[in-house]
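Example 3.2
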Amino acid sequence: MTHKAKCGPERDPEFFKDVAEVFAKHPGASRRYSVRCLALEAEVLGVDFTKQVGVSRIEGDRIVTEFRSRDEFGNGEDEPRCCEFAGDPPHEFCVRYCLY
């Protein structure tokens, strides 16, 4: 059975080569960030990141993420901070807010 990876270095080798170079150039920052595939949410759960955003909170020893309408979030000072971005510069957008 031939299976093409949905995400990762096998699917996008040039992208991951560039990411590795950036992480090597910024070792301090590379320990704070990761590259994550959005296919699980988009393809399995049917999340439309143009209309929905993940909202994560800590419950005991778990991180729970729910997907809510983007309309629930504005640009107010009381808004949770964005902890995960997607998109192409300069048009990045938040795909997950973290409540912590």
